[in-house]
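User: Hi! I'm working on a homework problem where we have to compare a predicted structure to a textbook description. Could you give me the structure for the chain below?
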Amino acid sequence: MNFIFDIPSTLLFGEGESRNAGRLLKEMGARKVLLVCDQVMSSLGFAERIRNSFVEAGLDYAIFSEVTPNPTDTLVHAAAVFAAEHQVDSLVAIGGGSIIDTAKAINILLTNGGEIAAYEGVHKVTKPTLPLVMIPTTAGTGSEVTAVTVVTDTKRHKKMVIAGRFVGGALAICDPLLTADLPPAITAATGMDALTHAIEAYISKLASPVSDSHALKAIDLINTSLEEVGCNGNKKARSNLMLGSTMAGMAFNSAMLGLVHSLAHPLSAHYNIAHGVANAVFLPQVMRYNLGSFDHKLDDLAEALGIDRHQPDLGEQVVRRLETLSRAIGIPKFKDLNVPVADFAMLAEEAMVEISTMSNPKQATVADLVHILESTYAEA
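Assistant: Happy to help. Predicted structure tokens:
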């Protein structure tokens, strides 16, 4: 048995822990911090809370608050110039996956230089980066515990996956209280993103016993908390959902992903569709396509999704549970996202060369991917 399991960042988990960001950065030797966020984080007061922790710790700071969903190469280059001009020696990202990914990309450019496109792929970042603290406000991407960042190439309309050593951050602070004010649609999309991470990591060709244990627990936590968070938002459910998202990130950081992400990336790059929504719409049909390629794991997967493992047609039961969950939390249907059917062949070709395609448990062709797109579009 041979495998690698790696988590690039230390994890600090608990209600209210985000208040300690400034003190922890000072203990790391920081003097001037770049706070990376977006306008929503500023308007909700989240950025102010973290800024206050800097003041209390006696740290100087600069704020870059122009992050947008699906961050682009032009955005991260502008942010890196801003960071260099302010001579920061550390970074804090507060927000969703786009903000954390942006901070990782800024960090790469500050210490390695050049164009962000030069680092597309695995282990292209060769120089150590600055201390980066990541504070997620959504339970979805798991980016706080992964050595991966995703940036959109505006010339190629392609999501670039940058992964490997020096890409991840130093510390993840997961404070479930920060998710309390999320709109239901964002909770739903990010929650399905996390569930996709866990499921794809579990059935991946690169899965290991360690990643499997994290993935299965993540599936269980997300499956039992996502609908409840959407209905009443109680603290226990929010904590479980955030823990599930983080554990899913730990799993896929080593096991990687599959065809759901391969299809979701070009969809987001071309049509600016939220990544979690893109994952959610493709997850059932990709799982149906993959049936038969992970039979030795099907019983445990079904059980983690709350399905009696002794039911007939267990694989189909798994697919139906994913469809039912998406409908229950308000995920839109693929045909309602205004994606031209004429673009399916192009999307399939681009998905075929995504890095996640190689770790899918079943080898796919472009024709297979077109069929998945068509089947997803035809869902009632």
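For your comparison, note the following. Residues 209-231 form the longest helix (23 residues). The chain has a mean pLDDT of 95. Good luck with the assignment!
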